[in-house]
Specification:
The chain is mainly α and 131 residues long. 37% of the residues lie in helices and 8% in strands. The protein has six helices and two strands. A two-stranded antiparallel sheet has the order 1-2. The two termini are 25 Å apart. The mean pLDDT is 87.
Length: 131
């Protein structure tokens, strides 16, 4: 089922004769490093999601590699990841540096992976959780 927003999901369920309040659990699968920034107020994304294999963070990664003597493993003991374009933190930094609406509204921004955004919307903007 394609999800545009939580209202779309509710309508699709009702059209199939399913009472949305009868659902007690769902499963979500996604590309784990795809990152989205959305409004805490509206639940709507500020910008398109940046997918796991997007390379627009390459310059940010290069700066970190230069800072840490080309040691791609610098953060691995902390988070298990290499300095690489797939790393979510670099996507978040890119969004802050390149999307003025995000940079100017940081108090209203949640950052997370797609599953966190879906969960936030499906709980009527009551639950934000991400790893």
């Amino acid at each position: 089922m394609c999800i545009r927003d939580r209202y779309d999901v509710v309508e699709k369920l009702k059209n199939k004769g399913i009472n949305p309040s009868s659902i007690i659990t769902i499963g979500i699968t996604n590309q784990r490093e795809t990152t989205v920034a959305w409004s805490k107020t509206t639940g709507q994304p500020y910008y398109n999601a940046i997918v796991w294999n997007d390379l627009r963070t390459a310059d940010i990664c290069r700066k970190f590699l230069d800072k840490y003597n080309n040691n791609a493993y610098h953060f691995q003991s902390i988070n298990g990841l290499l300095i690489n374009t797939y790393f979510t933190a670099f996507k978040i930094r890119w969004l802050i540096e390149n999307v003025p609406e995000i940079a100017n509204n940081l108090d209203d921004v949640y950052f997370g992976t797609i599953d966190a955004w879906v969960k936030y919307n499906l709980t009527n903007e009551k639950e934000f959780s991400t790893d």
